[in-house]
């Protein structure tokens, strides 16, 4: 399972940070940061979700008020949002 995070869309509410430790606050930017991720295009970051963190990552995606977080299964099908 993978998570995709669009940093440009993020408005810095940090709800994802409260739901999953894969996200941290960057107060200097006013944005969340997806830890251990790779930038795949300008402002879009992707990483694998550890199996034991899948539920937390899904909650993080669901709580994002601007849908900056997407979750994909191993076949590349978008699960959330």
TrEMBL record:
<dbReference type="GO" id="GO:0051536">
    <property type="term" value="F:iron-sulfur cluster binding"/>
</dbReference>
<protein>
    <submittedName>
        <fullName>Ferredoxin</fullName>
    </submittedName>
</protein>
<keyword id="KW-0479">Metal-binding</keyword>
<dbReference type="Pfam" id="PF13459">
    <property type="entry name" value="Fer4_15"/>
</dbReference>
<keyword id="KW-0411">Iron-sulfur</keyword>
<dbReference type="GO" id="GO:0046872">
    <property type="term" value="F:metal ion binding"/>
</dbReference>
<keyword id="KW-0249">Electron transport</keyword>
<keyword id="KW-0813">Transport</keyword>
<keyword id="KW-0408">Iron</keyword>
<dbReference type="InterPro" id="IPR051269">
    <property type="entry name" value="Fe-S_cluster_ET"/>
</dbReference>
């Amino acid at each position: 399972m993978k998570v995709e995070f669009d940093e440009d869309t993020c408005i810095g509410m940090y709800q994802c940070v409260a739901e999953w430790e894969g996200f941290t606050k960057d107060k200097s930017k006013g944005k969340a940061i997806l830890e251990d991720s790779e930038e795949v295009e300008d402002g879009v970051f992707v990483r694998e979700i550890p199996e034991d963190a899948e539920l937390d990552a899904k909650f993080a995606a669901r709580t994002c008020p601007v849908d900056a977080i997407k979750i994909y299964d191993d076949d590349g099908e978008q699960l959330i949002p």
